């Protein structure tokens, strides 16, 4: 692939214009993950800006997870990074940190994401993905019996991500990891507060989700996920958010014929 050319930019907030040009080349497909950008000197010459301007733009792109800098690499410039869910996770965490998202917001979003993921996973019934879910479930069981809290949390996250992965929708997979991280940042891991009894209850509930996906029953799989969130997280919401969450639950439950909405 030929190296894309860059145009001179205006001097006002020039580093933003440099950043915008690079992002545009990536969005247009002229730069792919793994491609190397021109060196600092080449970018300065093509864009008509100073090295500090290019460096500031590169630091911004690195912070956003767009590129990986190679400061001691003599062969050229930064590397275009393969996108992942880290940016989404950071964005949700920042919104929580600055009180722009409440626990109720996160519970509602998680309900939509996880019930949809379970529904699609059961509908698709991809055996290789189901095998991955089962392995993740076994890892959770092992962590409950003999692992540390950190090992249990990591295994539990991987279980939910493996279900979302089985949905075939990449955004659901990324959102599952991000919303769980954001909720943990706000309230910690709810299952740890109840000790081993709560962990074992979650293992049982996970098993019901796995069985529904194996059976190819989307409504049941979705219903199991909905009940888990309502039983464990709805009681933690603020009083003024319960009504909205209950309405959302009723909306989700309307698409699952196996169970009525849970009374609040």
Automatic annotation (TrEMBL):
Q: Matching InterPro entries, A to Z? A: GntR_C, TF_FadR/GntR_C, Tscrpt_reg_HTH_GntR, WH-like_DNA-bd_sf, WH_DNA-bd_sf
Name the Gene3D superfamilies for this protein: GntR ligand-binding domain-like, Winged helix-like DNA-binding domain superfamily/Winged helix DNA-binding domain
Top-level lineage group: Bacteria
Name of protein: DNA-binding FadR family transcriptional regulator
Q: Which UniProt keywords apply?
A: DNA-binding, Transcription, Transcription regulation
One Pfam family from the record: FCD
CDD domains tied to this protein: WHTH_GntR (cd07377)
GO molecular function, a single term: DNA-binding transcription factor activity
Ranges where the HTH gntR-type domain occurs = 12-83
